[in-house]
Design a protein that fits this description.
alpha+beta; 4-stranded antiparallel beta sheet; 4 strands; 49% helix; 22% strand
């Protein structure tokens, strides 16, 4: 037994790491934003600590600069806290514009509801005039659809909503996705029942957030109740 222990002390496997990139990511072990190093490795059989025989490559891996834990490169797909906050803020702004564009900007109560939602997301200086101007610009924007000058406003809104919400949805808990839909619903309901255009926009919001159609319908009905 002691002889085996001696052999294992003399011989071993060593991994030599090389850093090939770095940046910031959300470390699963630390639970917060940390710097990382993207590394690749080479494994070698060592005798008395001297590398002798190569045993192949290892990685690439992502190494947290704080806790030194190693993760697969898919760990970089999760947004940092700063990036997630920006994505959420932009998503709320986009859905508010979409509901204003679908239902019109003529209602004072709808504009006020949209401003309240957008300010709550972090755009504290948002005003009704700013939102109205952006809605008008969206309605006039045909440059986003080369060769498709006849694209409807509904199609343009769908594109905007999917671009803003789909990248965010995988990183939200179900309650978070439902909350976004309900915020949009409360904007639409500020001046009365849903219009057909508002229902279409809200259905697109639900789809972009990966909510099932029946879930979207249930939530929209919930929003109509005094407690919703």
């Amino acid at each position: 037994m002691s002889r085996l222990c001696g052999i294992s002390t003399l011989c071993g496997i060593r991994t030599t790491w090389t850093t090939v990139g770095d940046g910031e990511f959300h470390c699963p072990d630390c639970g917060g934003d940390r710097n990382y190093r993207r590394r690749t490795g080479r494994r070698s059989l060592t005798v008395l600590g001297v590398p002798l025989i190569g045993r192949g490559g290892v990685g690439p891996v992502v190494e947290c600069a704080s806790c030194r834990s190693h993760f697969g490169t898919d760990a970089l797909e999760a947004p940092t806290t700063t990036r997630f906050t920006a994505m959420l803020r932009d998503a709320v702004h986009t859905l508010a514009l979409a509901l204003l564009a679908a239902g019109g900007t003529g209602s004072r109560s709808v504009r006020a509801a949209a401003v309240h939602v957008v300010r709550g997301a972090g755009f504290e200086d948002c005003t009704e005039d700013q939102l109205t101007t952006l809605v008008e610009a969206l309605a006039a924007d045909t440059g986003r659809f080369p060769g498709c000058a006849d694209v409807s406003r509904g199609a343009a809104l769908a594109v905007e909503l999917h671009e803003a919400l789909e990248p965010l949805a995988p990183h939200l808990a179900p309650a978070g996705r439902e909350s976004l839909l309900l915020q949009a619903a409360h904007i639409a309901l500020a001046d009365g029942p849903y219009t057909p255009a508002e229902r279409d926009a809200l259905a697109t919001v639900g789809s972009a957030l990966s909510l099932r159609p029946e879930e979207t319908v249930r939530l929209l009905e919930t929003a109509r109740t005094p407690s919703g």
